[in-house]
Amino acid sequence: MTLADPSQMSQPRAPSAAQAAANSAARIRDPRLDFFRGIVMFIILIAHTPGNWLTLWIPARFGFSDATEVFVFCSGMASAIAFGAVFRDQGLLMGAARVAFRCWQVYWAHIALFFAIAGTMVFLNSTELFERDYVGQLNLYPFFKRPEENLLGLLTLTYVPNYFDILPMYLVVLAMMPVVIASYKAHPLLALGVVAGVWFGAQLDYFALPAEPWSAREWFFNPFGWQLVFFTGFAFMSGWLPAPPRNKILIILAAVIVLVIIPLAYYRITRQLPEVQAWRKEYRFLIAKTDFGILRYVHFLALAYLCWVAVGEAGRRILPPQAGGALAEFWRRALAIIMKVGQQSLAVFITSMFTARLLGVALDTLGRNSLFNQLLVNAVGFAVLIGVAYGVGWFKSQPWRKKKGA
Asked: Which of 185, 296, 298, 404 is the most exposed place for a label (fewest CB within 10 A)?
């Protein structure tokens, strides 16, 4: 069941761990999952648009974690819904086959995204309308200078340019799922040991993947580090981990963590304080994005807990009331759009990465100093994502199978 119109939803009750697992089996969508994934899709578009003024106000500017953690965490939750019932009802082999099929889809989405963007950048460079070197902006000249070697590297994921590194990371983490689930079936502590052990191995540089054949550069998003946040979301949605209690002590602790980290992360503060700069340099492994440093995890968990408390049990506070005035109707419509974008996250993400480059070109052409231009370009980008989400949802509904007039 999908949530195309949140106004048609009844106010849900908070599920227990056992009920959460049952819900996963029934493939019932969690409104919180679609809501936060939808918000993240818009943030990802903003963050990847070159010279976008709104990037000064995204959550990443005020903490160690950013939209990537939310995306990966929610992907873990969604994977528990999508694949959990298969593993439980049809066994490990069929579950692994289901995951392999998803990996196949993600792999070709990654390849298609690369060629779509690379081809577009070449086209923009070939015209006389633009002075900026868009191929060089994405550091794609190494690919075109040695196409035979790098085409093979692209297909084998041994050539992963920085802009194209999220889907490969997600693909590898997905591939780990059968191992983690098999470990959990053997003993829950074994699954914990696998996930924690792999993460520790990434912190010690034991586990990493090469990003290009001609250097020692590694994938910017090390999947062996980032799997920790993925399987955290997976474990919560699967019922492996109980929901944390809602109490004032935890709320205060989480709020303190978030607030204390702001001066350590906000660039307007860090650039004015040499002591903070020195701390960040000395302890950069704690906040490293590549290997998913532990303080990123702590910040994300604190922020996620506060959001979890804020939206209420089963997300009831984000759902519009059954009756209300113009404001309630506006929120009902806005929420339907946000959740639709969240429901089609893979297609929207791919579109976002491609569209962001074109929005950067638009800002190059129109100028970045005008607030109107900035808002206009972002509004166009949001409209594209919304249109894609509804278009993909329409195709997935297979309307051609419906009887005429039904």
From this structure: 404
